[in-house]
């Protein structure tokens, strides 16, 4: 059971890293390119800088938002492994981080995306499907939390019952 906790914690950290990476790429690369089709990303950034937008600050803001999620995942992995938390609760913690990721994903959209919208006169909405992928991932994680906890508790109860019957 100890090794399973390490596997679940590792997969959890990797899932949060993937979510954070997609969030950063979506907000800093994919969405600006979709909002201004046919214009290279460097040109978009340069034009926004020329118009007085703080592109560097936007990039830093999005990277910090993504990095906070990754740091949180690493802290959760260390603490849950150190405290020998049950596997299903370890999984639930990581699902919680993914579920909560919808809020920073939405907040990150107000960084560079709004500057692109204002600088190029396009809508401020998401211009790619990838933002939706982040939101759907968060909803699935949210729905999975009680399922993982209930199934894990039932499994633990079954093991406890079979252990007392054998003794």
Would you count the extended β strands for me? 0
User: Secondary-structure element sequence?
Assistant: HHHHHHH
- What is the overall shape? elongated
Determine the N-to-C terminus distance.
20 Å
Rg from alpha-carbon coordinates: 20 Å
Number of helices: 7
Could you say which structural class the secondary elements and strand pairing correspond to?
mainly alpha
Task: Report on the biggest sheet.
Answer: none
Helix content: over 70%
Average pLDDT number: 94
Strand-residue proportion: under 5%
Taking pLDDT < 50 over at least 5 consecutive residues as the criterion, the unreliable ranges are none
Question: How would you characterize the overall build of this protein?
Answer:
The structure is a single chain. The chain has helices at 2-35, 41-50, 55-82, 87-100, 102-108, 112-120, 130-166. The protein is elongated and about 70 Å long. Helix 1 (2-35) packs parallel to helix 4. It is mostly helical and 167 residues long. The chain is built from seven helices and no strands.
